[in-house]
Fold this sequence. Notes:
The protein has 610 residues and is an alpha+beta fold.
Amino acid sequence: MLLYDKDNKREFKKKLFFSIVFAIVAFTIILSRLWYLQILQGKKFKSLSENNRIRIVKIPAPRGIIFDRKGKSLVDNYPSFDLSIIPEDVNDLESTIKELSGLLNVNADLFKAKLKEAQGNPPFKPIKVKTNLDYREVAIVETNKLYLPGITIEIEPKRLYIFDKLAAHLIGYMGKISESQLKTRSSDGYNMVDLIGKYGIEHDYESVLRGSNGGAQVEVDAVGRKVRVLRELEPNPGENIFLTIELDIQKLAEKGLADMIGTVIVMDPNNGEILALASSPSFNPNMFSLGISSKEWEALVTNPYNPLANKAIQGQYPPGSVYKIITAIAGLEEKVITPETVFYCDGSYRFGRRAYRCWQKKGHGSVNLHRALVESCDVYFYQVGQRLGVDRIAYYSSLFGLGKPTGISRTNEKRGLIPTSLWKLEALKSPWQEGETLSAAIGQGFVLVTPLQILNLMSSIATGGVLYRPQIVKKIESPGGDIIKEFFPEKMKKIPVSDNSIKLIKDALWGVVNERLGTGWRARIEGADVAGKTGTAQVVGLPKDSGNEYVPFEHRDHAWFSAFAPKDKPKVAIVVLLEHGGHGGNKAAQVARDILKGALKIINNDSASF
């Protein structure tokens, strides 16, 4: 009996020892884990815990407003109701999407596509799945919010382009930030769902218009519903921009273009301020603000007349007979002609083995410089160009700013092309041919310009040889109305040509519109003293007797007309370029006349604001 008790006691002690060791090891593991979680990882898990309870909500800043020169709103903001999903708060994403789809009558695949685009976002970040909800849709979501955990409606300012297409190429549009933009701008507070200026003023002045976002610390319950706001930082609205354009003149320019393809630019030649800039076909920037569909985007990018291109600064065209102004000035300054120099035109000029035609088939007879410009005689300028050579013509082109960007835009402005003998040798690996000079002298061949460059040329003639940089922004103001920056006329230079040469050209340009045989007579305005120049730029070589009505539209000539008025005290300058518009003295001159007539009336009535 005693032996039994001793064995039993020894067994008990053995079990007790192992139990104590097990308990010590277990408690050591638990204490180690607690030490790891609370000491080593305490800050991390405290932060995670706070994020489960407290959300940081971005409060977008209203973007700066864009006005015309008189303070009329062109671009504003409006509150948009956007539907978002916070994945972390959704119990069953599939059923939630199905429920939303049924309530709002929206294809569930559209919601899924938005969620797929945002893969990689933190789960507590809202993902926009539908923007611009109407009041009925907002009411439906709010009514069912209790049964839709993780669903929220956010109010965000969206861009409103008040006059739809008006000045779209000048103002620009907003679009979703691209991956490449995000890489360079992430330090400025942008993220992958932000919109950013993509074009025009919206792009060039992004940092001015954007403002700075605010934020709020919001306490939410277990299903993500807001309980209270703990702290809030108000956003700072963007700064406002006043453009140089005048709304009523812009409307005239848009109406003048109507359904034609081309551009109209109106400028104050005395300071370079752009009063109107229209490019056609155009687009409605509100499409981008609302969220452009793939079908709408496809229609824009496949349109053969490229509505997204600003033809005023991105279109590069042969200038045609408008370029004769350059050839005439070069001839006078280089003394290869005088105002009295006469050439005979019988309808063509033979050089080498080729006959270079004049637009006037029967010829102009004996013409001096004045008549050659007034009646736009090609044969006269063939011979002036032959005497000058291409390099001297190119030199005077560069003096007037042709073949180089004007500096009006920070991006996408084209430079055109003013050919020289060296350019052809380097670019095309072949020597310049003398016959090519004849084509260049009348603005054909390799010569390419933008409409804005031609307007600069015409404005510099109007001002006696003073060249201003084109300007589209007048001032920048704070939301409170304080002037932050004011833009003043930038005189680029006084072009080094004689006053006499400028006067001779100016008198001839007046004759183009006002003399009996002037090619621009359709632009005549009683009492306005319009001076201008027509131009017809050949797109493809055509048979001698072909008329525009028998030629496919895309092969028809481009039509130019550029002018200023009044002749001696100019207040306004204009350029009209109609793609495939035929002879510049026809429709282009008529469009310019109607716009000039209205613009002069507006300027004369509101002279204090100009």
